[in-house]
């Protein structure tokens, strides 16, 4: 209760778990020296919301907690405007005069197909991730759960800084 629940996500394009430190802007020696021998898998778990290696519980990674000491599992959202996408959204393309009859039919088929999609809210957070959350509003049907998180390559190289207990706030995916 009160915490963002995260879905598992696949890390692709990083060359496997051993490439994680370089991919997030860390040298492999930094994990051994600055972060007590933390493994690349532990780094990824931290980015997924695992608080077990934070300083507050005897670890070496930066604390992500609110003023009351409760763990926070998502980065701050400051300037990012949440966007709601629903399966029933029709942006008016079917009314464009320039569309051929075949294009109108294809678009109508697309609208029918996407009408069964789970509604989602998309928002960027300053933990380096662009998040998608189930916006169905039905908690029993996973409403509010994270569907996925995407890390843009320009953000990925800055994410190693997020581990540092001396971290100074930056706007990463804002």
Describe the structure.
With 174 residues, this protein is of the alpha+beta class. 21% of the residues lie in helices and 10% in strands. A hairpin with a 5-residue loop joins strand 2 and strand 3. The protein is elongated, with a radius of gyration of 20 Å. The two termini are 26 Å apart.
**How many strand elements?**
4
Shape annotation: elongated
Beta-strand portion reads 5-15%
- How much is the radius of gyration in Å? 20 Å
The largest pleated sheet is described as: 4 strands, antiparallel
- Secondary-structure-based class equals alpha+beta
Please report the number of helical segments: 5
- What series of H and E elements makes up the topology? HHHEHEEEH
Question: How far is the N terminus from the C terminus?
Answer: 26 Å
* Major β-sheet strand ordering: 1-2-3-4
Q: Give the proportion of residues in helices.
A: 10-25%
Q: What average pLDDT do the residues reach? A: 80
List low-pLDDT spans: 1-20
Short description:
This protein is 21% helix and 10% strand. It has 174 residues and is α+β, with helices and mostly antiparallel strands. The longest helix is centred in the middle third of the chain and has 14 residues, at 101-114.
Labels describing this entry:
single chain; 174 residues; alpha+beta; four-stranded antiparallel sheet; 5 helices; disordered N terminus
How are the SSEs ordered, and which strands pair?
Blueprint: H1 20-23, H2 28-33, H3 40-47, E1 83-85, H4 101-114, E2 120-124, E3 130-134, E4 146-150, H5 153-156
Antiparallel strand pairs: 1-2, 2-3, 3-4
